[in-house]
C-alpha cells in the first residue's frame, strides 16, 4: 500500500513546483485525471508547461488551469473545444507548441523509451517544421522531432493494483499509457483498486515500475461527457415523421 495515497493533494505533495513540465493524459474529457488536475489548481503552482492532446473544455479538465493562468505553455495538437484556450493563444497570453497528433504521441513515447529524437515526414514544408533540422532518407525529406520527458505525468486508469500496475478502459486508454512511462514521477488516479495478482499479467497496460503514487477515485466519481450524440428512439422518430406528413 506504499504507493496509495489518501487523496490527490497528498499524492502530489512534494512533487509540484513552479515552471515544471507536466504530461496530462486524456483526450478531450475522456480519460483525464480530473482529481489530480483539481489538486494542481488548488496548489497554486504556476508557469507550467503542460503536454496534452488538448486542454479539455472551459470549465473542466485543463481548462481549470487555463482559467487560473497557471499554464504558461501548452504542447498540444488541438484547441477547438476550449474557447479560453483559443482566446489566450490569439491574444498572445499563452505559448502553444502545435504538433500533429501522431507526432505528439510519438514524441511522448520516444521520451519514455529514452529516444532523444526521431525523424518523420509529417509536417515537412509547413510551419511545424520551421527551425527544425531536416534530413533526406531514400529520396524523401524528414523533419527531426525531439522526444518529451516530463517532470510529472498525471494519468487516469480504470483499474490498478497496489503495486501500481494499471489497466485503461477502451478509448480512455488514449495518451495515458505512453505518458505514464515518460516522466520522472507518475501519479495515477484509478477507479478500481485491487490487490496484487488480481490483474492478469497479460492485461496490464502500464507496469507498476513506472507508477510512483496512486489515488482511488471516491464513490460516485463523475466522468463528464464532453459531447453526447444520440439518435432518436425508433418510436419517437416515427411519431415525428407522422407529424410532418
From TrEMBL:
Keywords: Transferase
Alphabetical list of Gene3D superfamilies matching this protein: Glutaconate Coenzyme A-transferase
An annotated Gene Ontology molecular function: CoA-transferase activity
SMART domains found in the cross-reference section: CoA_trans
InterPro entries associated with the record: 3-oxoacid_CoA-transf_A, CoA_trans_fam_I, NagB/RpiA_transferase-like
Pfam families: CoA_trans
Signal sequence segment: none
Origin superkingdom: Bacteria
NCBIfam families: pcaI_scoA_fam
PANTHER family given in the database record: ACETATE COA-TRANSFERASE SUBUNIT ALPHA, KETOACID-COENZYME A TRANSFERASE
Protein name, per record: CoA transferase subunit A
Amino acid at each position: 500500500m506504499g504507493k496509495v495515497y489518501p487523496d490527490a493533494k497528498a499524492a502530489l505533495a512534494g512533487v509540484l513546483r513552479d515552471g515544471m513540465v507536466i504530461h496530462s493524459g486524456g483526450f478531450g474529457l475522456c480519460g483525464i485525471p480530473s482529481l489530480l488536475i483539481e489538486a494542481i489548481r488548488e496548489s497554486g503552482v504556476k508557469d507550467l508547461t503542460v503536454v496534452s492532446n488538448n486542454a479539455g473544455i472551459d470549465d473542466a479538465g485543463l481548462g481549470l488551469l487555463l482559467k487560473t493562468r497557471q499554464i504558461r505553455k501548452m504542447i498540444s495538437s488541438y484547441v477547438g473545444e476550449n474557447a479560453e484556450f483559443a482566446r489566450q493563444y490569439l491574444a498572445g497570453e499563452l505559448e502553444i507548441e502545435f504538433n500533429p497528433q501522431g507526432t505528439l504521441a510519438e514524441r511522448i513515447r520516444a521520451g519514455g523509451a529514452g529516444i532523444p529524437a526521431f525523424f518523420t515526414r509529417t509536417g515537412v514544408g509547413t510551419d511545424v517544421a520551421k527551425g527544425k533540422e531536416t534530413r533526406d532518407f531514400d529520396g524523401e525529406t524528414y523533419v527531426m522531432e525531439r522526444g518529451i520527458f516530463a517532470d510529472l505525468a498525471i494519468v487516469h486508469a480504470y483499474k490498478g493494483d497496489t503495486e501500481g500496475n494499471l489497466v485503461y478502459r477502451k478509448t480512455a486508454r488514449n495518451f495515458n499509457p505512453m505518458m505514464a512511462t515518460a516522466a520522472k514521477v507518475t501519479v495515477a488516479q484509478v477507479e478500481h483498486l485491487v490487490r496484487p495478482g488480481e490483474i492478469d499479467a497479460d492485461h496490464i497496460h502500464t507496469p507498476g515500475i513506472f507508477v510512483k503514487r496512486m489515488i482511488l477515485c471516491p464513490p460516485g466519481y463523475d466522468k463528464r461527457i464532453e459531447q453526447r450524440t444520440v439518435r432518436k428512439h425508433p418510436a419517437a422518430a416515427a411519431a415525428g415523421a407522422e407529424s410532418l406528413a
